[in-house]
Amino acid sequence: MRTAHDSVVVTGLGATTPLGGTAPDTWRAMCEGHNGIRAIDRPWVAELPIRIAGQLAVEPSAVLDRIEARRLDRSEQIALIAAREAWADAGRPAVEGERLAVVIGTGTGGSVTMLDQNGVLERSGVRKVSPHTVPMLMANGPAAWVSIDLGARAGAHTPVSACASGAEAVALGLDLIRLGRADVVLAGGTEACLHPLPLAGFAQARAHSLRNDDPAGASRPFDTGRDGFVIAEGAAVLVLERATLRPGHRRYATLAGAAVTSDAHHITAGHPDGQTRAVRAALADAGLPPEAIGLVHAHATSTPLGDHTEAETLTRVFGAHRPAVTATKSMTGHLFGAAGALSALATAYSLHHQYAPAVRNLTDPDPDLHPLDLLTASGPLPAGAALTNSFGFGGHNAALVLTT
């Protein structure tokens, strides 16, 4: 039985993404259907079959102090930027450090630092390797730096569960507050892995879109023309807090339920059984029937198999009930470890503003998918509850339920 003391609310939002350098800028761009995918502006891209990505709209160097930024991996830089924005947006809650926790998920952590510094080692020898290399490549680095920056001493956690990492971080933040281990949690995800090796690997796996001549139309969730996801970088952080901590303070939404499951099926192919269990468990945790959901923020990466599997999952869960479905990766690309956190952020905004962004590039909905009420135009959203899905390689599934 839930009590008022179990209620957890979202009071702050922060992000830096391919659509904008802040959470409000990102949200406005989503609602206006802007495109954040463009040609990669790195010199090494000419040799690769993949030459498009969702690159940050605002470079971290334009936001962070130069000396501060120098010791951080790009994934750490953007996590810190998003966390500081979210903290300020929440009004900097007056909470003791022992009651403040951080949970920042990531898919690859400081992989670019590792790859770059390995290149330095091979070309120039050990004396040229940066002394900051190990703190920069650690997957827990983003959570650690945020906890240091804000004095969070109730724990600094790092879920690493591929594309479900950001949503799993939010779910863990919910648990920490419910269990009484923290009163406030900064929860989210970060990813910055634009490098020749990951791009070459995704190309070889035939998982990435090859629409190099059409960046704006490359990510096409649920469309017959979809041919793979588009890699992207970015970070998103939510401030979660016990609802009784600051009664009357502005809140975007209530984080009503969450669930995490695993498929135990295949390393890259998701399965509707595991996804369905996650969604149903999140609804049960929130104490809501499927009919209460008015909006689904789909994982929808734009891969042929992935979108089909999620469509089957939604049909299993909702049956004849057809909530509105949106898929903002059509605008941002796929932020991997940050994707679930950005979905949660967008869902919180949707509930707060009673408005939902449309699916971009949906010109020919795939008739082979189960019937879905896909949003083809941004517009008002009735008050109620919303679901956000995140599914990752390895069979990781995370579902979150938010309410007004």
From TrEMBL:
GO cellular component, one term: cytosol
Gene3D superfamilies recorded: 3.40.47.10
Keywords (A to Z) from UniProt: Acyltransferase, Transferase
Domain of life from the UniProt record: Bacteria
EC numbers on record: 2.3.1.179
GO biological process, one term: fatty acid biosynthetic process
CDD domains: KAS_I_II
UniProt keyword Translocase present: no
Gene Ontology molecular function terms on file: 3-oxoacyl-[acyl-carrier-protein] synthase activity
Residue stretches making up the Ketosynthase family 3 (KS3) domain: 5-404
Classification via InterPro entries: Beta-ketoacyl_synthase, Ketoacyl_synth_C, Ketoacyl_synth_N, PKS_Beta-ketoAc_synthase_dom, Thiolase-like
Entry-linked NCBIfam families: PRK07314.1
Family assignment from sequence similarity: Belongs to the thiolase-like superfamily. Beta-ketoacyl-ACP synthases family.
Name used for this protein in its record: Putative 3-oxoacyl-[acyl-carrier-protein] synthase II
Gene: fabF1
